[in-house]
């Protein structure tokens, strides 16, 4: 859960955005702020002092929808208080819950002004104008119950998939001042894994043209970004129109082109599907120094039978073959993955196969969850749902193994010297937090302000989720 921080307190109107879920939602929140800036909205990190609240929601986690209603209840008094002063206060639900629930949100929480899906945020200014008009109409007809009822019949819900791409409507100037920037290159998914709601909430797979991506990357680099993470629900399915318009480029060609941009030191991409790891992309991990040696490659299960039930479209041996080829291309590469335990029909034998896979691959990080049904997905209707107690026990075993691997991976860095991009101040005086090429959080003490700089760090200690080190050279190096 991430809250965008305020860049200035001088704005005419204050916008508070609460972001849930993945980096793609963080990117979307930043773009929504970009879109609303020319309309007089500036970010605040204080919802009580805001004129508009956008909840940018995520549908992946358990009970996501209920949590949204719960949070909305917290914002309701703020809206009431502000509107008693005779000024419109706009409450919007964006993101995947907005897409999935649509008008249901306004039915259950009638004080919500706007509901929008992830493909519609470029239409926010028009929605806001409608919401303001509706507010003034309610004010004027405050004593006419019949008219008020009429007005409620036209909720502002933009949860369809528009024909035009939202990317064509984004402002060319972004407020993104991160040293490490996110850049969405692809959205949606055509894979239809049986447990996942993304194909229903984000729509069909769509890749942005190479030219647009390069232009956006240049803007981020100009604003200080040293690292760019290319985002997509199925990022390595990328197939964008080439700069000449004569064909399509895959992700490998895009990464190699980005690597030519002066000032950019690091490139990452997430999230990948094993089936789309083509040979060119595997080889790019050996050939491109700026492509960071750490890859998130979800597998979900170590059982072919469960992978089939999940409609993952690959086998365990196919996945392991990719891991081996990536290690051949770059022996230094580390991996993270996603696992679901207790998928409907998962037997003890299937689960042991997942443990076996984890032991063979050995991960530097991983995300693991108990299966929980998502409304409307095929797996939710499968028989043979696994009892919660069994899921809990399996998850505990898997996580114990993954945490042990993560600690061992981090400890293997003690005594190594690695380049670290420093992105934040730490809690202690003189402490800085940065990121290693392998996605580890690294903390050091420094008398110089090293924010936004890459420094070589000798690793002196390692923990489950971070490394500790000392800067050994006060000069800037390429990442990786
Ligand atoms: S590939 Fe990823 S985004 Fe697409 S359906 Fe499967 S889990 Fe969801």
Secondary structure layout:
Layout: E1 2-3, E2 13-19, H1 23-36, E3 41-43, E4 52-57, H2 64-83, E5 90-94, H3 95-101, H4 104-108, E6 114-116, H5 124-140, H6 145-151, E7 156-158, E8 180-184, E9 186-187, H7 198-201, E10 206-207, H8 210-222, E11 227-231, E12 240-241, E13 248-249, H9 251-258, E14 266-270, H10 279-287, E15 294-296, H11 304-309, H12 316-329, E16 334-341, H13 348-361, E17 365-370, H14 388-411, E18 417-425, E19 431-435, E20 441-445, E21 454-462, E22 466-473
Helix pairs in contact: 9-10, 10-12, 13-14
This protein binds iron/sulfur cluster.
Residues 189, 191-193, 196, 198-199, 233-234, 273 line the site of iron/sulfur cluster.
Structure description:
- The protein has 480 residues and is an alpha/beta fold.
- Among the domains are: 2-158, Methylthiotransferase, N-terminal domain (Rossmann fold); 176-292, Transcription Regulator spoIIAA (2-Layer Sandwich); 417-473, Beta Barrel (OB fold (Dihydrolipoamide Acetyltransferase, E2P)), CATH 2.40.50.
- The protein contains 14 helices and 22 strands.
- Helix 10 runs parallel beside helix 12 and helix 13 (348-361) packs parallel to helix 14 (388-411).
- Iron/sulfur cluster binds next to helix 7.
